Amino acid sequence: MGLDKLRWLSGLVLFALLWSVVPLASADEAKIERVHAVEEDSRLRIIFDLDNVPEHDVFSLSDPYRVVIDFDQTELATQDLPRAGLLREMRSGVQQSGQLRLVLDMEERVDTRSFVIGQGGEQGHQLLLDLTPDKREAHEASRERAQPVRSASERNQDKALIAIDAGHGGVDPGAIGPSGTYEKDVALAVARKLRDLIEQEPSLEPLMIRDGDYYMALRDRTRKAREHEADLFLSLHADGAENPNVKGASVYALSVDGATSERARMLARRENAADFLGGVSLEDKDDDLRSVLVDLTRGATIEASLEVGDYMLTELDRHADLLRNRVDRAGFAVLKSVDMPSLLIELGFMTNAEEERRLNDPGYQSQLADGILAAVKQYAGNYILPEIRQAQEGKREHTVERGDSLSQIARKYQVSTDAIRQANNLSGDQINVGNTLVIP
Fold first, then answer.
1. Entry pTM
2. Which domains does the chain show, CATH number per domain?
3. Sheet holding 100-106, edge to edge
4. Which of 9, 230, 270, 381 would be a feasible disulfide site paired with 225, CB 3.0-4.6 Å?
5. CB hemisphere CA count around 399 (13 angstroms)
6. Which residues does 238 contact at the CB level (< 8 Å), separation at least 6?
7. What's the pLDDT tens digit per position in 27-45?
């Protein structure tokens, strides 16, 4: 082989190798076409109009306080950057890595949350960045949660109050189906059907957390349930996944020890991103308060939530396909109410064309509501209503189950372990499964 031919072949191979490793940047690039701001009460919303959805990271810097957004492979096609309310100035620049960085100089410390809406195509996308004054303090969290809410028996009522939370709402559509169905609409439709069914039950009473198409913060959802002293909190959702073939209903409870599956971890991240203010944030609490809150969260409410979840899976299995046959656990902000059994129920996958069609069917929505009601009735009949009857009779009793401890039972009924020992002539903390304890 001649030298020229060898050089020519070597050049061709080199060209092919370079072509294979050089990315086609234009395929993944996004363009920010407009940035504008909307003030709503104390919240400032920054809206980025995009032609594609870029990878982005939002974080904060102090002294002075700034919010920073880094965009991958993104072009800023406008220099008209807003100033409004909490936002003194917005600056832009391109880093050595090629990332577009936007720096928001703030008047004060803020909480941030971001999510993307829009169908793409001609309609484009919008990245919404909400900025809210950070007024959370550790003593507020302590005051709000130091005294668990009372159960129905302690309210001297003869009905169990069931809080029904329709996920997402308003500007937050949740997952979007291939035909354009919004998760928020499906969740609300099933929630209303469940409410109507519960209203027909003489021993149950519904509490709608969201009863319209409006945005509601996660923390406000659990606060409403507490203020009304609910006995059970159910948050209804419809899942989304990159794989359009994934389908099935699923049930989740709170975990403080990590997620039970990668799916649970990813879902909790997505749901929590709907509201950065929601739930019990432990990061800004001192060590003593953090340990108290964790101890409460590890207690009887998680065990009770898992109990309800088992009933829920059994009943949903009669009407829907199940994603898996167990109650998954993860750190959902909307479940961090610490003082009542709480579940997050995924009714199916909006991103699966078949399930999107079924979730849009009023008949199927009614079947799902029937299954949820059946589970609620079983749990209430076994746990909540007996407490109500015992309270009306002037006494309370607890049958010891596997996993119970004296301290957990004391927390559940808000009495001291010493009081339970004295009422039952116990010399120590040893209790046996199946024994009935008198609760003073």
1. 0.54
2. 25-134 (2.60.40.3500), 147-385 (3.40.630.40), 395-439 (3.10.350.10)
3. 56-61, 66-71, 100-106, 87-94
4. 230
5. 7
6. 167, 174, 175, 183, 186, 187, 346, 347, 348, 349, 350, 359
7. 468 889 999 888 876 788 8
Span 238-265, average pLDDT: 69
Q: Are the C-beta atoms of 33 and 76 separated by less than 8 Å?
A: no
Sequence-ordered alpha helix ranges (H) in 111-200: 138-145, 183-199
Strands, sheet with 30-40, edge to edge from the N-terminal-most edge strand: 74-76, 30-40, 43-50, 125-133, 110-117
Q: Can you read off the two tokens belonging to residue 369?
A: 């509501």
pLDDT tens digit sequence for 169-223: 888 888 899 999 999 999 999 999 999 999 999 889 999 999 998 888 777 888 8
Lowest mean pLDDT: which of 215-229, 385-399, 411-425?
A: 385-399
Map 336-395 to HEC letters: CCCCCCEEEEEEEECCCHHHHHHHCCHHHHHHHHHHHHHHHHHHHHHHHHHHHHHHHCCC
Would you tell me the crossing angle of helices 300-316 and 362-379 to the nearest 10 degrees? 140
The confidence score (pLDDT) of residue 152 equals: 54
Mean pLDDT for the chain overall = 75
**What residue type is 245 in one-letter code?**
N
CB 398 within 8 A of CB 391: no
Structural tokens at position 152: 């129905």
Joined tokens for residue 153 = 């028996």
d(CA 250, CA 425): 43
